[in-house]
Amino acid sequence: MSYPLVLTPLFIHVALAFALMLGAGTALGGRARLSRDRCAEALGDPYGLGVLFYVLTLASMLTRHADLAFVLLAFVFVTLRVLRAVTVMGARGGTAPGLLDRASALVLAVAWGVFAVRILLGI
């Protein structure tokens, strides 16, 4: 699997994180289009999913286990994180952000499980 394809979900997630950080740092109360609190909430990652995703991406590349299954799971994970940010930024609230958190955590857990099995079984 080529490095650009494997790293694309990582780059998208990093861009999302930086966009939300900039929004949280530069929003000016009611005059800004996006509120600082909303950007900070959308950026919030209480479970450290972003860090786990970054580590998994690097570990998969270093061990040469970054295959199509990994890339697909990575894109699903990043898509769920983007949807979560959009939901929070849109002030829809409700259970959607929590549901998207759980869904993205589940996808990342599956990706880690697949990676672990492949490493431990030498596949």
Written overview of the protein:
It is a single chain. The chain has 5 helices and no strands. The protein is mainly alpha-helical and 123 residues long. It has one domain. It is elongated, with a radius of gyration of 16 Å. The mean pLDDT is 83. Keywords: Membrane, Transmembrane, Transmembrane helix.
**How many distinct helices?**
5
The main pleated sheet reads as: none
How many beta-strand segments? 0
Beta percentage is: under 5%
Overall shape: it is: elongated
Number of folding domains? 1
* Head-to-tail CA distance between termini: 16 Å
Protein name: MAPEG family protein
Transmembrane segments: 6-30, 68-91, 103-121
Keywords: Membrane, Transmembrane, Transmembrane helix
Short description:
With 123 residues, the protein is mainly alpha-helical. Helices cover 76% and strands 0% of the residues.
